[in-house]
Amino acid sequence: MDLSIQLLNARISKQQLNELDNDFKQLSPAQQTLQLNHLYDSAQRLSVKYDFMQNIATRILSSNTAPTPFINQLTNIDALSFFTPALKVNKGFLVQDTQGNNVLHNVFKHADATKLPFNYVRSLMLFESNDELAKALAQPNSHGLTPVACYIAYANKPSTPVKHEFSALLALMEIEQKQNPNAKQQLANVIKGQKVNETTILLSAAYLQRSTAQVAHLIKAL
Question: Where does the source fall among the domains of life (predicted)?
Answer without folding.
Answer: Bacteria
